Amino acid sequence: MKNNRIQILIFLSIAAFCLNCENIFAQHKNIKISSKNEPEETTICINPKKPNIIVAAANTENYYFSSDTGKTWRDGSLESSYGVWGDPCLLVDSLGNFYYFHLSKMKDGNSYDRLVCQKSFNKGISWNNGTYLGLNGDQSQDKEWAAIDPKSNYIYVLWTEQKKPNGRAQTKTITDINLAISKDLGKTWSTGKKINEKSGPDFENWKSVIGAMPTIGPEGQVYATWVSTEGIFFDKSLDSGKTWLEKDVKVSPLNNKWSISVSGMYRCYVFPIIACDVSNGPDKGSIYMTWADKKKESSDADIYFSKSVDEGVTWSAPKKVNSDSTSTQQYHPWITVDPVNGNIYMVWYDRRNHKDGKTDVYMARSNDGGKTFVNFKVSERSFTPKSYTFMGDYIGIAAYNNIVRPIWTAVDDHGSLSVWTAIVNVNAIK
């Protein structure tokens, strides 16, 4: 009888241990959003009016929508008479309307000649034909990103324009960061306007100014960042985009140009990602920026973070966010700030647990304005990128009132792509 009791106790102990392990390793349940159409280069957006509504997108024409905070998804394929040609970016206005920005591809085969904004009035289920912006003769428009002021619903779009000063006869181009604004919920757009102080040459040897991204401050300030061979730059407008700084602020130099080599990756651009705390918390108004870089002559790529508390006049020295002490590669970071509580969330690809190209997805949270970060693994399965398979130039993350949803691309052993999110358990982050 005594032996039976001992056996029962041992069984119960093992069962409890296994259950505890399952809870540990399944703290952030992964949800496969889709594998249709080989999706990559992801973006995600939460509706603050109804946070159960989440919309996501991926190259080239994929969109996804959920009405249960991302636990289940439906998908669709975007269509427009202006064409759909990548670089997806999602926004939502204060009325709950979603906006899907992307490059164009006209029926005559001409691509990159304009940017397109398509709008959904029904929670991302369907999209209108859209409007366009940035058209400037035969100049090329590329790598757009947008932000919306929730108070005015003004929409600000930044992108890179490649100019041929003397027409097609001259092969050399120059690049600038352009801005367009819509003050009527995406119906019409202002003419593109250069905001950067110093132009860049063409894309040869990564000399372009590129990777522009805006964010909005708590009082409607418009903040912008981009990258060039000289480093990461910042600019701002305090009058709804009318005027900008005469001299751009250099946030940080880069050890490399705006592209780093990551084994197994088709390419790995270094674009700065910017966000601002608009909550009523103690760090309201702080501007945050993240990017990946690695030391020269080194394969160790890391995630860096910098902060400004004076509207971008000065920036803190870049600090490493990934907490590992390995010489492995971390890359493609994204950052967001929960507008309700001011918590910072970051996501990136991470190889700290492997000696080869196997990759996990990690996140970090800061609840003290970026003074400290807690790292945690959010992906349940590792995957190995294939150099012949393009996985996109970025991943994404969105947060609202402790609903936190990252989004990333994974690849299977055959090189096929799929898009994933995670139901992040904020109470399990320690």
Protein model, in words:
The chain is mostly beta strands and 430 residues long. The protein has a single domain, classed as Neuraminidase, CATH 2.120.10. It has one helix at 2-25, and strands at 29-34, 40-46, 54-59, 62-66, 74-77, 89-92, 98-105, 111-120, 131-133, 140-148, 155-163, 174-182, 193-194, 210-216, 222-228, 231-237, 249-252, 273-276, 287-294, 301-308, 319-320, 330-337, 344-350, 360-366, 374-377, 396-400, 403-411, 417-423. The strands form 7 sheets. It has a 4-stranded antiparallel sheet with strand order 1-28-27-26, with no helix packed on it.
SSE layout and pairings?
Blueprint: H1 2-25, E1 29-34, E2 40-46, E3 54-59, E4 62-66, E5 74-77, E6 89-92, E7 98-105, E8 111-120, E9 131-133, E10 140-148, E11 155-163, E12 174-182, E13 193-194, E14 210-216, E15 222-228, E16 231-237, E17 249-252, E18 273-276, E19 287-294, E20 301-308, E21 319-320, E22 330-337, E23 344-350, E24 360-366, E25 374-377, E26 396-400, E27 403-411, E28 417-423
